[in-house]
Amino acid sequence: MAMNKLPKLNLRDRAVLMKTPLISGLAPSVQARMLELAMPGTFAARGIIFREGTEAEHLYCILSGYVRLFRLGRDGREADIRICGPGDVFAECMLTMGPRHRYSAQAAENVTVARFDLQKMRMLVEREKEVARALMQVTANNLLSTMECVANDRLQTAPQRVAHYLLANCPPEGSEISIRLPFQKSLLAGKLGLAPEALSRAFSTLKPAGVTVRGRLIQIHDVSALKQI
Amino acid sequence: MAMNKLPKLNLRDRAVLMKTPLISGLAPSVQARMLELAMPGTFAARGIIFREGTEAEHLYCILSGYVRLFRLGRDGREADIRICGPGDVFAECMLTMGPRHRYSAQAAENVTVARFDLQKMRMLVEREKEVARALMQVTANNLLSTMECVANDRLQTAPQRVAHYLLANCPPEGSEISIRLPFQKSLLAGKLGLAPEALSRAFSTLKPAGVTVRGRLIQIHDVSALKQI
DNA sequence: CGAGTTCTTGAGCTAATTCAATTTGTGTGG
DNA sequence: CCACACAAATTGAATTAGCTCAAGAACTCG
Q1: Where are the domains of chain B?
Q2: Which CATH superfamily is domain A11-155 in?
Q3: A Gene Ontology molecular-function term (chains A, B) (predicted)?
Q4: Nearest chain B CA: its distance from A12 CA (Å)
Q5: Is B114 in a helix, a strand, or coil?
Q6: pLDDT, tens digit, for every residue of A29-43?
Q7: Chain B residues touching chain A at CB-CB below 8 Å
Q8: Binning pLDDT at 50, 70 and 90, where does residue A5 land?
Q9: What's the CATH code, domain A158-227?
């Protein structure tokens, strides 16, 4: 057994990683193998994690913070494809569809991740059915939510998208609810496929429906009214 | 070995299925197992294959024809999420993310498919790593193209989307090329997230760039000019 | 408290949708 | 094989949603 000089996750990060959908469902022995492979990564706000076109080396599981997956347009404009938060896995497609990234990833704020070397993961997937199953699950989940994103882009207006987001991220109880946005509004705008101004206007549109915005705090005075939008 | 009363694929369909990415990479013995499970399905033009909200029973691999995956809006409008053609697999997410379909599937024309019972597939995936790998590959592929779809929707105009589609579906040779659309224009419009009228106008816009349309036949007089759009 | 960033609001503009009418294409039966 | 009938595609006109640009307000953090 060769001595492993690679950097390891600290205890705190380990604990977070264990709670992750990628890992939590595995048998303890397999979890241990995954922890073996996990390398820590930290990125400052706005730090680039990888760029589209470059060769993929890792798959990532977020431990804290939010990450923006986006693509560059010919004219330099950027379009967000997906916003990932704690527990989310990204670049998992590079296991089979490499070698080059099809999109860029950027830390939207200070971010810590667990990185898994793709080569080693391929070997582990080959040996451990459970890991294959977990990855399949994660990928299928990502696919379904991306498909839903396409559908929402195509048949919802801006206020509808916002209402949909709020309803999807609020406790199902009660009629009066308040939500704290986990990230900046500009990031939410990107996630919903809107310019920041359009998000602002969408919130204004929802005000008559009982939505109050103050900073990151959003109050919904009547949940059922929002569902009608 | 119990006598199997299930309908089987005919020889022709078997041959087509074997060429499919889902099957072609497998070892012969595993291919045989897959063929065992494959049940034939035919759908008339406009026939509904399954509806969103219903319980998923199969995953599908298309043998001939095109299938429209779409979602219903609250107001009854429909938005296409993906257009699948021969060799494509759909509803594969239902292996792990069931039990209910998140979108509907409709035959855009006469269609033949191979259906695989989800229960049996789950067992086969458990036994045969190769099948798991093939499905992982298919799903990752679907995820990447769906992500690209989101990006294209968000940063390309209608003429750009059409140009992109044409360039992605033409032989890379020469500067003068003609393409035969494999399906109706209304379907292409849906695939690109456009109303049929918008597709028509996009083609008009491309006429100065050397694109001629007559029925399903499209002539591109200057490929490199199209790339500038 | 103050400086920088993020967010909001306004005005003008553009892309794409909707609705309606015409043309073209396709398939069927005489 | 042609004519007819239905479906699909195109074109025009009006409308709408969202974008861009620019300025002002609010929030955040040191």
Answers
A1: 11-155, 158-227
A2: Jelly Rolls (2.60.120.10)
A3: DNA-binding transcription factor activity
A4: 30
A5: strand
A6: 999 999 999 999 999
A7: 69-71, 73, 77-82, 92-93, 95-97, 102-103, 126, 129, 132-133, 135-137, 139-144, 146-151, 153-156, 193
A8: low
A9: 1.10.10.10
